[in-house]
TrEMBL record:
This is CMP/dCMP-type deaminase domain-containing protein. SUPFAM superfamilies: Cytidine deaminase-like. PROSITE patterns: CYT_DCMP_DEAMINASES_1 (PS00903), CYT_DCMP_DEAMINASES_2 (PS51747). CDD domains: nucleoside_deaminase. Pfam families: dCMP_cyt_deam_1. One of its GO terms (biological process) is purine nucleoside catabolic process. It comes from the Eukaryota. It comes from Nyssa sinensis. Residues 1-26 form the signal peptide. Transmembrane segments: none annotated. Belongs to the cytidine and deoxycytidylate deaminase family.
């Protein structure tokens, strides 16, 4: 599956380089110039989907290993994955070992720096206030998440993860781009909860 995504990304990248000067003649004879911007949007979408898929894979992996809840996060620097992590609350006996916090700690260690201002984070689910705080403190420039917090709340996770943050000044003033995945990215991320809920005990 992952191989397919990588291939698609490469194909789209090469299409983009052609699309700037691509003249298209439609069947009715009208001629138009393909928009490079539209191609760029597709490449960004595909790139986001590729990394979000890895975060979702981590969510499944964490439950399969018995390490914690069904949450995954990936930190990306210049199109390269720095770390991919999952929730480690049970394994580490640590209520703060959420996927995003774990990924930020590991990425900082690996890059040997306390700022991740050139990095993006992909989270399988909307970050809770603690993780959002950690993302803010690490200066990560962009957050992409899959499932809405309500999908986790629906299977029993604490509803503070949505209510405490949205609409607050903290959320609005954070200096990072926040994108919620749509389409297939949102679907695969939200499926995680239904597919794993029988495999772990709520903590
Ligand atoms: Zn969290």
């Amino acid at each position: 599956m992952l191989g397919v995504f990588c291939l698609t990304f490469d194909v789209l990248s090469s299409l983009l380089s052609f699309s700037c000067s691509l003249v298209v003649e439609a069947k009715d004879g009208t001629i138009s110039v393909a928009s490079a911007f539209a191609g760029h949007q597709e490449v960004v979408q595909d790139r986001d989907h590729k990394f979000l898929t890895q975060a979702v894979e981590e969510a499944y992996k964490g439950v399969d290993c018995g390490d914690g809840g069904p949450f995954g996060a990936v930190v990306v620097l210049n199109d390269e994955v720095v770390v991919r992590c999952h929730n480690m609350v049970l394994k580490d006996t640590d209520p703060t070992a959420h996927a995003e916090v774990t990924a930020i700690r590991e990425a900082c260690k690996k890059l040997n720096q306390i700022e991740l201002s050139d990095c993006e984070i992909y989270a399988s689910c909307e970050p809770c206030p603690m993780c959002f705080g950690a993302i803010h403190l690490s200066r990560i420039k962009r957050l992409v998440y899959g499932a809405k917090a309500e999908a986790a709340i629906a299977i029993g996770f604490d509803d503070f993860i949505a209510d405490a943050l949205r609409g607050t000044g903290f959320y609005q003033k954070a200096h990072l781009e926040i994108k919620r995945a749509d389409g297939n990215g949102a679907i695969i991320a939200e499926e995680v909860f239904e597919k794993t809920k029988a495999k772990f005990h709520m903590y």
